[in-house]
Structures are given as C-alpha cells and as structure tokens.
Design goal:
The strands form 2 sheets. A 5-stranded antiparallel sheet has the order 1-5-6-7-4, with helices on one face. Strands 2-3-8-9 form a 4-stranded antiparallel sheet, with no helix packed on it. The protein has 157 residues and is α+β, with helices and mostly antiparallel strands. The protein has helices spanning 25-41, 132-137, 143-147, and strands at residues 4-10, 48-50, 53-56, 59-66, 75-85, 89-99, 103-114, 116-119, 124-127. 18% of the residues lie in helices and 41% in strands.
Length: 157
C-alpha cells in the first residue's frame, strides 16, 4: 500500500543505555530508517534526482512518546503510516510494536519531512513541490485508519 509500511528491527546492544533499555534517540533513528525503507519499497531513494534536481527530505518536526521499554535482542516492528501529503511535505505517524509472542505497542511517534532541492554549489536547501512521480505513489492513509492511529502527544506547556 502506498500509505503504509512496516520495518522489522532486532535491537542491537549498541542501541541500549546503562539500564539495558533502548536509548530514546534510537527511536528517532528507527523512524528515519523506516522512512528510507518505505522509499526503497517504492523503487526510489530518500536522496534522488528528478528532472536534474537533487532532492532530499530534511525533517522539520519529530516527536515520540515512549510507552514501554525495549531491550537488547528484542524484535520491534516499526509501522509507518502516511498521515498527510502536502504540496512540499509529508507527515508520517509511527507505531512501534514489540514482537514478544504478543504484539505490544511500546512507542508512537510522528515526523514531518519537507521535499527540498539541494544546490550542491552553494550547499543550500530550498523547499520544492514533491515530484509528480512520487506524488502518484505516496498517498495519505484513509481517515478510518488514521483514527485508529493516535498521534504522539504534544510537549507540555
């Protein structure tokens, strides 16, 4: 489906902290890895060229709520859902599921990536419309699916 993707990952020792649980920063890496794998599943790369323009996807927002710990050698499924596709950005929702005989939700997150053209000469980025080829492939999830997909909580005021 062009609006959903799941990536399986076994927790490595280097991803854990002194308490033996996954350090929070690795959840952001897992979200990014799932986004990259999603693009590859569509036959594209997160860094690609369209009509002579080098495109990348810098993040402008990311959040994650941690519900239960993950530990070394546990397997987690990172479920990516395309929550919204705008002219120049894609917003994703993520759910992390520990696969321990049962499917247990351990975290949920969100991330917004902007389609940006890279000017290699001046080393600058500029937001540009999502290439039509990708726009045809990546569609937002149906509303009923998103309703079952609670977002990461906003930071407290």
């Amino acid at each position: 489906m062009p609006h959903e993707f799941t990536l399986s990952h076994r927790i490595e020792f280097s991803e854990t902290d002194m308490a033996g649980i996954v350090h929070f920063a690795h959840f952001y890496r897992m979200m990014e890895n799932a986004e990259h794998a999603f693009f590859r599943s569509l036959g594209h790369s997160i860094h690609d060229e369209y009509d002579g323009i080098h495109i990348g996807w810098p993040r402008v927002s990311a959040a994650c709520d941690f519900l239960q710990p993950l530990k070394f050698e546990e397997t987690v499924e990172i479920q990516l859902i395309v929550a919204e596709v705008r002219n120049r950005a894609i917003r994703y929702a993520f759910r992390f599921w520990k696969m321990d005989g049962a499917r247990t939700e351990v975290a949920r997150g969100s991330m917004t990536s902007v389609c940006a053209a890279l000017d290699k000469v001046n080393a600058t980025l500029a937001a540009v419309p999502i290439p039509a080829e990708l726009r045809r492939l990546i569609q937002p999830a149906p509303a009923e699916m998103l309703a079952k997909f609670p977002p990461a909580a906003a930071a407290p005021a």
